């Protein structure tokens, strides 16, 4: 079974890592040059914790998951599994449809992670960060990452999503998460145009508010249309971006910036 995609002489992992690193550096520089919101915590400690979490994620995935989404897509195609294979769509259309449906699937997963208590226990590790910047996009508990992989692979098998669609979706989703978590100031006009299609930093920042109504809104990571269509869209935070409080109301201390605290948070009773 083919298990990796090659483009420009590079395998998918090298391409995704390169794209991820490039977007991270660009957004980190943008935060430094034109920040939107003043930080509440020292950056060094937060970044050390958030990078530590993604390293833990990578190690655990490597140990637990020998097969990743692109490999599952190749398997589905080679065995003629899934809706898109049965429909025999043109390649370009199958890639486009597969990409869009996967984006909806991630929107739905994000909504469910707020609505189902056991999933929220994991997802609150992400929301406990008291500042939101490009490093917050790295801050997901390893168990949540593993569940997300199983969830995506189930969709890929049912849909028969082409490997190219999966690769593009994963790469773009990672870049979009870095972009929309960034603490970057855009003009109101540019933000308004961008958010017609994609989730902007100002749009996603609302989702990280301590106000429950705002926390339970703007679930998109990439395309912005799902929140508009399903009534979960809030344009701006009630207190404004500069004055809004980020994080969770019951964790407004230095604890969320500690690696061990974040790893153990899902197993604590508040």
UniProtKB/TrEMBL annotation:
Domain annotation Fatty acid hydroxylase: ranges: 95-232
GO cellular component: endomembrane system; membrane
Main localization (coarse): membrane
Keywords, alphabetical: Lipid metabolism, Membrane, Oxidoreductase, Transmembrane, Transmembrane helix
Localization, UniProt: Endomembrane system
Domain of life: Bacteria
InterPro entries to which the protein is assigned, alphabetical: Fatty_acid_hydroxylase, Sterol_desaturase/TMEM195
Ranges that cross the membrane: 15-35, 47-72, 92-112, 149-169
GO BP annotations, alphabetical order: lipid biosynthetic process; membrane lipid metabolic process
Membrane topology term: Multi-pass membrane protein
GO MF: glyceryl-ether monooxygenase activity; iron ion binding
Protein name as catalogued: Sterol desaturase/sphingolipid hydroxylase, fatty acid hydroxylase superfamily
Organism per entry: Cohaesibacter gelatinilyticus
Classification of source organism: Bacteria, Pseudomonadati, Pseudomonadota, Alphaproteobacteria, Hyphomicrobiales
